Amino acid sequence: MKGQVVNEWIERANHALEMAKILLSKEEYFDVVLFHIHQAVEKFKRLSYSQRLGIKEDPILKPL
Q1: Selection from 41, 38, 61 nearest residue 51 by Cα
Q2: CA distances from 61 to 14, 27, 35, 51 (A)
Q3: DSSP string covering the chain, please?
């Protein structure tokens, strides 16, 4: 995968984590916090698998 695409997806995952941190202060949004954490984990996992397997083009990990 191209470096720019990887960096964009890392940024997306980090944004999801940051949103989870912001919402964590509000107890009534715990389900949304879990959603954003899950999204971040999925993005990091997909990047990790793609890089480990040497996948050059991933149909889901597209440029922004």
Answers
A1: 61
A2: 15, 32, 19, 11
A3: --HHHHHHHHHHHHHHHHHHHHHHT-GGGHHHHHHHHHHHHHHHHHHHHHHHHT-S--SSS---
Residue pair 19/34 in contact (Cβ under 8 Å)? The answer is: no
Q: Given the structure tokens 């996948």, which residue do they identify? A: 55
The rounded radius of gyration (Å) of the Cα atoms in the chain is 13
pLDDT in tens, 24-42: 998 889 999 999 999 999 9
Neighbours of 1 (CB within 10 A): 15
